[in-house]
Amino acid sequence: MSLLISTVKKEKKRIEYMLSKYLQQLKELPKGSITAKNVGTNTYYYLKYRDGKKVFTDYLGKGGERVQNVRTELEKRHHIEAMIMHLRTEQALASKILEEYI
Hints:
The protein has 102 residues and is α+β, with helices and mostly antiparallel strands. Helices cover 63% and strands 25% of the residues. The protein has helices at residues 2-28, 65-101; strands at residues 33-39, 42-51, 54-61. The longest helix is centred in the last third of the chain and has 37 residues, at 65-101. The mean pLDDT is 93.
């Protein structure tokens, strides 16, 4: 049993480390979604996000590299958010196991 407990403790520490790294990365990534508005023959792109109860809209341009970069960062943010949810589930399981055996 001692080997099992030490393995779970190491795993819990790894999970906590990964959570802190992912949460730090989330602070640097944009949040929200990209919306497009058609005016005549032109398409303009905006980043919409919420801060508290207010909704903000940032102009991204007519397209191109900036819009693609923001889109890539938003996809990365969604992936990291999914990883955080998964790690929190694993963290709860590890805590439960440690509570039962310690």
